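To the structural biology subgroup,

Please find below the input and predicted structure for Large ribosomal subunit protein bL9, which we are adding to the shared reference set this quarter. The sequence is reproduced verbatim from the submission form. If anyone notices a discrepancy with their own records, reply to this email rather than editing the shared folder directly, so we keep one authoritative version.
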Amino acid sequence: MKIILTADVTGLGESGDIVEVKDGYARNYLLPRSLAIVATKGAQKQIETIRRVQENRRVRNLEHAHELKQQLKDLGSVTLTAKVSSQGKLFGSITSGDVVTAVRKAGGPSLDKRSVSLRGHIKSLGKHVVDVQLHPDVTANVSVQVASEQ
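Predicted structure (tokenized):
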């Protein structure tokens, strides 16, 4: 069955792509979730419009991502407090949600916790570097200082 993707589908294609898939996959998964539409002549015209809008949005998003990266760079180091045992180890670990909350409290931009990539688990005091994927082409680094909660 020929379909037109209306959203990015991992392993299949991006929004606006015309792909050939098995009938069951299209009927039972893609079409009910509004990830695709059946390929017709009218749908082709609609996809051209969607592609133009997406191209404009990508440019806007790229510019916005660079602005956010600059804001994060100007922010400097972000401090997080956590409960610590007598040996200096954290009870639990720092999550991406904790980092997002700390950035927001420090006056930084509001981020999505799914865009924050921790380099392993943060389970100790000290300075750690966290990656933030703002756009497929733009990645920012945030320095996180983990301090003991008194």
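Summary notes: The radius of gyration is 21 Å. Residues 75-148 form a domain with the Ribosomal Protein L9; domain 2 fold (CATH 3.10.430.100).

Regards,
Lab coordination
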